[in-house]
């Protein structure tokens, strides 16, 4: 009976020992897991601190960069304007304020441009401020912002003045090098005029006197054209007035008629004649007349066509003839000052055209095929301001 009681008591004791052993094991596992969690928490705390420090450093660096950019924008000689997606000015620097005035924030950029900027000049597409400064505009879209953009305004007044001065000095240098040739070119028509006019005094026949007088006047006209070409070449006058193509064509027609040989024909295409250019009327008239006169002298009974065509914001003048063409070996030299293939030629006609084209921001292109004629294209900017609606193209007319 006593043995049975001891067995009953030992059974629960064994179960308690097993349970205690399981408890100890679970406690050890929990302790280990807690240590792992502590280590992980410490690592995460360190990582968070590193990330916070990195963010602080990035913030300070961004602030320093922003401050440097603000300082840079403040000292830039160019004007910088930030325009948002609605077209309103959000920021601008001191350079923009000097060019366009203060109080621009929140103002529509288009209103500011219309109020403070004149129409762009032909040469280089510059704009003219109310104070008379020439400004070049460049636009760049802001990344990740639709329609928002940065507008850069660069004052190019002095730059353009220096460019014009260099161009003029180059032309004057060319004139200086060719002074002897110029003296010869002037002396020849002058001597002819003096000869014809002096003979008028000894001739009593009115018909003979009229003929000699006409020849003398013709030599003087030739001399006058030579002097005019020299002046245009030396000055290289560019933009300065609004020139309507129709008025320009009328002036060219009158000038070309005065030098047109018998048998030659001039055809003028009046398309796009209501377009306006920003240029010098006298210089453009001289350039186109020189092209026509050069074509007149290419062959007897030549047909010369003058056309004007609008291509986007560019106006293209074309003078084409059905003459003998220009030899490929000399096509690269025809625009050089004083280069001529004719004994009586001055060598200034096409040089004047090139000078006028460059002064107006234009380009010259020569196309010539032997026995098939020559075509010279003068391409230059038009006035960017809105023009009135253009009428249908007028009919081509021929000037006998």
What sequence of helices (H) and strands (E) makes up the elements? HEEHHEEEHHHEHEEHEEHEEE
How many structurally independent domains?
3
Question: Which parts are unreliable, with pLDDT below 50 for 5 consecutive residues or more?
Answer: 384-400
CATH class of the largest domain: Alpha Beta
Reading side by side through the largest sheet, how are the strands ordered?
11-12-10-9-7-13
CATH architecture call of the largest domain: 2-Layer Sandwich
Give the full name of the CATH homologous superfamily of the largest domain: Histidine kinase-like ATPase, C-terminal domain
Helix content: 40-55%
Shape: elongated
How would you summarize this macromolecular structure in one to three sentences?
With 400 residues, the protein is an alpha+beta fold. It folds into 3 domains: 76-155, 2-Layer Sandwich (Beta-Lactamase), CATH 3.30.450; 164-235, Helix Hairpins; 238-400, Histidine kinase-like ATPase, C-terminal domain (Heat Shock Protein 90), CATH 3.30.565.10.
């Amino acid at each position: 009976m006593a043995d049975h009681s001891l067995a009953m008591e030992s059974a629960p004791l064994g179960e308690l020992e097993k349970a205690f052993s399981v408890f100890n094991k679970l406690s050890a596992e929990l302790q280990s897991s807690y240590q792992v969690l502590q280590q992980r928490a410490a690592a995460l705390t360190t990582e968070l601190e590193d990330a916070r420090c990195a963010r602080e450093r990035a913030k300070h660096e961004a602030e320093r960069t922003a401050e440097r950019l603000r300082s840079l924008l403040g000292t830039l000689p160019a004007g910088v304007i930030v325009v948002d997606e609605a077209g309103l000015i959000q920021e601008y620097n001191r350079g923009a304020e000097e060019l366009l005035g203060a109080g621009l924030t929140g103002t529509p950029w288009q209103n500011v441009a219309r109020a403070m900027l004149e129409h762009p000049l032909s040469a280089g597409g510059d704009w003219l401020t109310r104070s008379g400064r020439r400004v070049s505009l460049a636009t760049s879209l802001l990344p990740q912002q639709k329609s928002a953009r940065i507008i850069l305004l660069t004052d190019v007044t002095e730059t353009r003045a220096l460019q014009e001065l260099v161009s003029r000095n180059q032309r004057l240098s060319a004139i200086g090098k060719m002074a002897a040739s110029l003296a010869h070119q002037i002396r020849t028509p002058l001597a002819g005029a003096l000869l014809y006019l002096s003979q008028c005094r000894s001739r009593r026949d009115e018909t003979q006197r009229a003929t000699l007088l006409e020849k003398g006047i013709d030599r003087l006209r030739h001399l006058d054209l030579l002097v005019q070409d020299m002046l245009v070449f030396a000055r290289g006058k560019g933009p300065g007035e609004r020139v309507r193509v129709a008025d320009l064509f009328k002036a060219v027609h009158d000038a070309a008629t005065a030098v047109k040989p018998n048998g030659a024909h001039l055809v003028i295409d009046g398309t796009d004649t209501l377009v306006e250019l920003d240029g010098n009327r006298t210089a453009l008239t001289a350039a186109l007349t020189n092209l026509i006169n050069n074509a007149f002298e290419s062959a007897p009974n030549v047909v010369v066509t003058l056309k004007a065509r609008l291509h986007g914001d560019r106006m293209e003048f074309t003078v084409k003839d059905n003459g003998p063409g220009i030899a490929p070996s000399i096509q690269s030299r025809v625009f050089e000052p004083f280069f001529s293939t004719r004994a009586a030629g001055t060598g200034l006609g096409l040089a004047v055209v090139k000078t006028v084209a460059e002064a107006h921001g234009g380009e010259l292109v020569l196309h010539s095929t032997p026995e098939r004629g020559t075509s010279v294209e003068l391409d230059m900017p038009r006035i960017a301001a809105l023009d009135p609606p253009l009428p249908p193209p007028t009919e081509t007319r021929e000037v006998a």
